[in-house]
Design goal:
Layout (H helix, E strand, L loop, with lengths): L4 E7 L5 H13 L3 E8 L9 E9 H7 L16 E4 L2 H9 L9 E5 L6 H5 L8 H11 L2 E5 L1 H8 L3 H12 L6 H11 L3 H16 L19 H13 L2 H17 L2 H12 L10 H15 L4 H8 L2 H11 L10 E4 L3 H7 L2 H9 L1 H8 L6 E4 L3 H12 L8 H21 L3 H9 L9 H20 L5 H11 L6 H9 L4
Parallel strand pairs: 1-4, 4-5, 5-6
Antiparallel strand pairs: 1-3, 2-3, 7-8
Length: about 500
């Protein structure tokens, strides 16, 4: 009995999943097949992809059967021939749903990641390991073709659907020639030239039938034109071991963007001043300490938030994600509700402490902070207001907030170096405790509270503390924002 060809396309909003499904339908109908497509939309752009389902049945077979075929409206687990996923997590979801089987399914997906809401909003590092996703998907499929299709689309000036279509053609899993695939794109009549370019590159790439798995790419050392930046890069290359340089260069880049060149120099000075024997033979500890120090030194404050919200790249990203066309206007509204604490932390140190200690000034300022307000950053007035706040980074190193963060950083580094000599693994867990201190406003306050609680327990436990125990406490601190999981974990060890 002849079975239809069953194809599932998983794509997020704006990635051309509907176009991809229409191409497959047109390809089939133009070449002797009856085609049917349905779609099941996801909840939102990044909480669930839309599933487009296509079935193709030979027209000649239908005539021989003397009737129209009955085609399914949705994919069933274990009953799909081809799965196309526009992003790696969607490939993982297809596997999880049982749409990919080792006996039958060809899985074609992009290896790039667009992080989900759950991954972004996690208190710690909520990202799913891409290598694990690749490994799992590779085991589940009969044939697995994957590469960075987002990059391929960008290089060709097209969209990812054209790349997926080319990869589908290259696998040879459908009974159509390359010319028939290309004719389908030409019949579409929109963006034909870049789409064909993307199609051709993907077709050739998929012929190798390889997957971009855990490949380590050595990037050339940066050669900045600015003399001060170049001096910092050269310092990293001369004064620090090679395994640390990638992390350090990224840290330098981040801190220049966050503050200035002097601040990036302070970052390197701090690391250079640490005892040499503290990281002897422990490259992972040195890398993690450098990484988390850069993250801590670029903590989020009002100036940083305003800086990020007024960047040209952000406006371009919002326009792109919203699908705004040339000539159309977009309004970007920000909900701002700064507390008295954030206002005092933004002011120069002396002024901030005076406002904080003066009851008259506190009551005056609090009148304006009782309610949140909407600021339209896409308007001139709103943009200028946030630009003024962003300018406050000029005196950031003299603020109350910086003094407090600096104190915690120095104590953290001291704990790591003192512990590293006797117990490098415990020191590594201490370095990773920085993940608790993140975010802005209430989020930061809760994180600091959990961090201080954990460090107090570490102090009481002493040198006998097991690395696994500290890891358990850190994981518990990141499990919920109210600290209930942390309290329970500490109670198990009588440290509550």
């Amino acid at each position: 009995m002849t079975q239809p060809i069953k194809i599932a396309v998983l794509a997020m909003g704006g990635e051309g999943g509907g176009v991809m499904a229409d191409w497959i339908v047109d390809l089939g109908e133009a070449n002797g097949y009856i085609a049917q497509t349905t779609s099941v939309p996801g909840v939102a752009q990044r909480t669930g992809a839309t599933i487009y389902y296509v079935e193709l049945y030979p027209h000649a077979q239908a005539e021989a059967d003397k009737g129209e075929p009955v085609l399914a409206l949705m994919p069933l687990p274990g009953d799909v021939d081809v799965v196309l996923a526009s992003e790696l997590m969607e490939a993982g979801r297809a596997v999880q749903r049982g749409l990919v089987t080792s006996e039958r399914t060809t899985l074609i997906c992009s290896t790039h990641r667009v992080y989900s809401i759950a991954e972004k909003s996690a208190m710690g590092d909520g990202r799913v390991d891409s290598n694990q996703l690749l490994e799992h998907a590779g085991r589940a499929a009969k044939r697995f073709v994957c590469f960075d299709m987002a990059q391929a689309a960008a290089e060709s000036g097209s969209v990812i659907s054209a790349v997926l279509f080319g990869a589908l053609a290259g696998t040879g899993v459908l009974p159509f020639t390359r010319q028939q695939f290309e004719a389908t794109i030409e019949r579409g009549g929109v963006g034909v030239k870049p789409s064909l370019k993307a199609f051709g590159a993907a077709f050739e790439k998929s012929q190798t039938d390889t997957a971009d798995k855990a490949v380590v790419v050595t990037k050339p050392a940066p050669a900045p034109k600015h003399p001060e930046v170049r001096a910092l890069v050269e310092r990293v290359q001369k004064e620090f071991p090679a395994p640390m340089q990638t992390v350090l260069l990224e840290g330098v880049r981040r801190l220049i963007d966050y503050q200035d060149m002097s601040y990036a120099k302070l970052y390197l000075d701090r690391l250079k001043s640490l005892p040499a024997n503290a990281f002897a033979g422990t490259a992972e500890l040195a890398n993690e300490t450098a990484r988390f120090l850069a993250l801590w030194m670029s903590y989020e404050d009002t100036a940083r938030v305003a800086q990020l919200k007024t960047r040209a790249s952000r406006f371009e990203r919002v326009r792109s994600e919203s699908g705004v066309q040339d000539g159309q206007l977009i309004a970007i509204n920000e909900y701002m509700h700064p507390r008295m604490q954030e206002i005092c932390e933004t002011l120069p140190g002396g002024l901030g402490r005076w406002v904080e200690s003066s009851s008259m000034m506190r009551s005056t300022v609090e009148k304006f902070t009782q309610k949140g307000r909407i600021i339209q950053t896409s308007s001139l007035r709103g943009y200028l207001m946030l630009s003024v706040v962003a300018y406050a980074r000029r005196w950031r190193l003299g603020t109350i907030r910086y003094a407090e963060e600096n104190r915690r950083m120095e104590e953290w580094l001291k704990r790591i170096t003192q512990t590293a000599v006797a117990n490098p693994q415990l020191a590594l867990e201490m370095a990773q405790c920085q993940t608790m201190v993140k975010g802005y406003s209430d989020t930061h306050e809760r994180g600091v509270r959990n961090y201080d609680t954990v460090m107090d327990a570490v102090q009481r436990a002493g040198a006998q503390l097991a690395p696994a125990t500290l890891k358990e406490w850190r994981t518990a601190a990141l499990a919920d924002e109210h600290g209930h999981a942390l309290k329970a974990a500490l109670e198990r060890y009588s440290f509550a």
